[in-house]
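Figure caption, in words: inputs first, then the predicted bound structure.
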Amino acid sequence: MGKSLRGKFITLEGAEGSGKSTQARMLCEYLEEQKKEVLHIREPGGVKISESIRDILLDVKNTAMSDECETLLYMAARAQLIEEVIVPELEKGKIVLCDRFLDSTVAYQGYGNGVDAKTIQAVGKFATRSISPDLTLLFDIDAKKGLARAGKNKDRIEQRSLAYHNRVRKGYLELTKQEPQRIKLIKVDKDKEEIFKIVKRHVDKLLHCNRNN
Ligand SMILES: Nc1ncnc2c1ncn2[C@@H]1O[C@H](COP(=O)(O)OP(=O)(O)OP(=O)(O)O)[C@@H](O)[C@H]1O
Ligand SMILES: [Mg+2]
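Bound structure (magnesium ion present):
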């Protein structure tokens, strides 16, 4: 990450219903208790333009959307969020917690839809201005269990087959192998307090590292 970005960028990744938003809320509270300045945002979305793109992406009526269009819309939403929020907040020194980021596109559009991985990385670099998270928490859950937890009102992506969601899960696990320093795999087979203990351990380590630098 660039030198002027004093803050810390933490992303939460994983399948539908893996507990990303639950853990992000708990982490937000924990950091605020320590009087840290923290911002919690979600992808796709987080700012007006990106929320509009989100509506297009998740609308079940958009059955005609091509894989290329889907990939680029996720990237467009991300580019706007980076420009409008992530970079300015990191420059101010804030901790930015982002529910999903570029790894989601690698997993869902890459492994899930079969879009070329190199293309995703290249467009991803452009969209994010090469800004990569300092830490990524990856919540791993059995695809079927996750979908069941996510509920009945399924969006355009959640509606996809179990085979699709299994490919996404596999993609995430591959990513962890490629970048073990950044991506921390957390098995979602315990209650949320137990999982939060692990989350806290990773985040404390990251923020502590900062003080020693
Ligand atoms: N460790 C846990 N054990 C059991 N249920 C959990 C656990 N963590 C979260 N849940 C429940 O599972 C559901 C999905 O959790 P949550 O919304 O945090 O997942 P998510 O990853 O943000 O999902 P989505 O991708 O759909 O936004 C919620 O009803 C939540 O209360
Ligand atoms: Mg969520």
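The beta strands are 8-14, 38-42, 95-99, 135-140, 183-187.
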